[in-house]
Design goal:
By secondary structure, the chain is an alpha/beta fold. It folds into four domains: 2-139, Rossmann fold; 144-315, 2-Layer Sandwich (Alpha-Beta Plaits), CATH 3.30.70.270; 325-426; 446-536, Orthogonal Bundle (Arc Repressor Mutant, subunit A), CATH 1.10.10.60. Helix content is 62%, strand content 11%. The protein contains 23 helices and ten strands. The chain has helices spanning 11-20, 37-46, 63-73, 88-96, 109-139, 141-144, 147-159, 165-174, 202-225, 249-270, 285-300, 302-305, 325-337, 340-357, 361-382, 392-401, 405-445, 453-460, 464-475, 479-497, 502-508, 514-525, 529-536, and strands spanning 2-7, 28-34, 51-54, 78-83, 101-104, 183-191, 229-233, 239-245, 274-282, 310-312. It has a five-stranded parallel sheet, sandwiched between helices. Strands 7-8-6-9-10 form a five-stranded mixed sheet, with helices on both faces. Helix 15 packs antiparallel against helix 16, helix 16 (392-401) runs antiparallel to helix 17 and helix 21 crosses helix 22. The N and C termini lie far apart (104 Å).
Length: 538
Amino acid sequence: MYRILLVDDEILVRDAIRENIDWKAMDCELVGDCDNGKAAAEFVQNHPVDIVLTDILMPYMDGMELSRFLHDNYPDIVIVIFSGFGEFEYAKKAIQYGVSEYMLKPVTAMELRNVIGKMKEKVDQQRKEKEKLERLTQTSENYQKNAIVIRSRALQGFVDNIKTRQESLEELAALGIDLEAACYRVAVFDLDLYSDGSQLTAEKRQESALMSFVLFNISDEIISKEKAGVAYQAGNNKVGALFMGNRTREFEHKIMEICRTIQDKLKELMSLDISIGVGSWARTQQELRASHELAEKAIEYRYLLGGSLLIDMKEQPEEKNLSIKAYVEKLAAALKAGKKEDAGHILEQISSEIKEARVDKSRACVYLQQIIRAADETCEDMVPDNRLFSKREALLQQVTEQNSFDSAVELVRNHIGEIFQTLSDANSSSGQRQARLALDYIQKNYMDPDLSLNSICSYLNISTSYFSTIFKDLTGETFTEVLIRTRMEKAKELLENTTMKNYEIAEKVGFADPHYFGISFKKMTGCTPTEYAREKRK
C-alpha cells in the first residue's frame, strides 16, 4: 500500500482529485489532505507518507518551501508538484529540492494516475535501496562506534557551532584533541567520482563511504605530520580539515601546499580526483561556521569549472549579475546568416561569461535554456514545419541533469549544430528549386528585352543578393551570363535554319538594339552573325 498526502489550498481541487481517483484499485491510500504547506509539514511529522502531491501557491508555507522541508527532513518522500504557473524558475527550484514530477494545471485524472504509477515505481526503488543500505549499515555498526567517528562528530559539531565553544573544547579535550588557536580555516575535500550522490546506487554509496575513509586517513596523516590542524569525516562522505595557526601569508601558502599534497597522494594511491574548497579565516564560532559554508560553496563550483579543483575562497570574486541578451541576439543573427563558426565562437563566449560570473547550477541552466529557446525560435521563423522542436522539453531536462556545465554546454552545442543542418538542408532544397525555376523562366522569356535580374527576383519573390548566390551555386554562372548565352544559342538556331535578317533575329531573341546584338554575338562566337550564317548555310 502506498500512502499519499494531497496538499492544495483550493477545496474544489482537493475534492475532485479525491473523488476521481480509484485509490484502492491503484493499491494506494489517500492518508490525508491539507490546505497549506505548514499543515502538510506537521502532518508528515506524525504520519507515515510515501508520496506528496502539492500545489505551489498556498498560504503560510508554499509548495516550494514544503518541498525544501521534505527534501531536507524526509528525503524518502516522493514529491509531485502541480500548479497553474509554468515558469522555468519554479521548475528549476523543484529539481533542486528533489521534486520527481512537475505538472501544469488543469491535471486530468488519467494524467494523475499515470504519474502516481511512475511515483510508485520510484517508491519501490527507494525501498529496495533502503533495505540494501540497512543491511550494509548493520554490518558496519562496529565501525560507526569507533573513536574516529566519535572524534569526527565532535569536530563537526565544533565547526557547525552546535554547542558552545567551551562545551566543544571540553568534549574534544576529553578525546585528546587541543583546538586552542589564534585563528582557524576550514577546508572541505570531496571525491569527484561520487559527487552526484542522488544518482548513486546503494553499492556505489557504500563504495563512496569506503573511499571517503581512505581520503580521511590520507588527509589526517598529512595534516598531522605538518602540525597544521586536524582532519575529520564530514557529512555526505566528505572530509573536513580544521587548519589552526596564526593568520600569516606563510601559513596560507602552507595550507594550499598541504591541500595539493593530499590531491596528489590520493591520485597516486587510488587514481581518484578530489575537489577542495578552503574557507575564510575565523576567530569566533560564527566565523568558523561561515568559513565552513564558504568551503562548501567552493565545491559547488565543480559544476561550472570541472573537477580536481583547489579553490581559496578568500581570493574568489563575488558572484556578479550577468545578462547574455546581447550574445543571444548575436547567436540568432549567426543562425540566420548560416555562419556556423561564428555561432560556435559566440557559444564559447557565453560559456566563459557564465563561468566567470560564478553562478550556481540553477542560474547556469536558466542561461542555457535561454540559448536553446532563442535558437529554436530563430529556426522556427525560417523553417516553420520543422520537427526539431519536439525534442526541446527533453533537451531542457537533459541539460539540468548533467553533472558538469561543460557537458550541458555540449548538449546545447550539438542542438545548435542540428539546427544549422536543418537550415542548411532547407536552404539547399529551397535554393535549388528556386534556381531551377529561374532557368525555366529564362528559357520561356529570353525574347523579352526587359527581362532583368530585378524582374526575375520579383517573379520568385526573393532578394537579388540571395538569388545571385543560389543561382551561381547551381549553374556556375551569373544570371546575365546565362541569359546572354541562352539568347545566343537561340540566335544561332535562327541563323542556321532561317533566312531572317540580323535585326529580325536580334528582336526575336530579346535584343532591342541590333548593333549591340552584333557585338555580343561576335564576342561569344568570334564572328559576326552574317559570317556565322554564311558558314553554316553552305
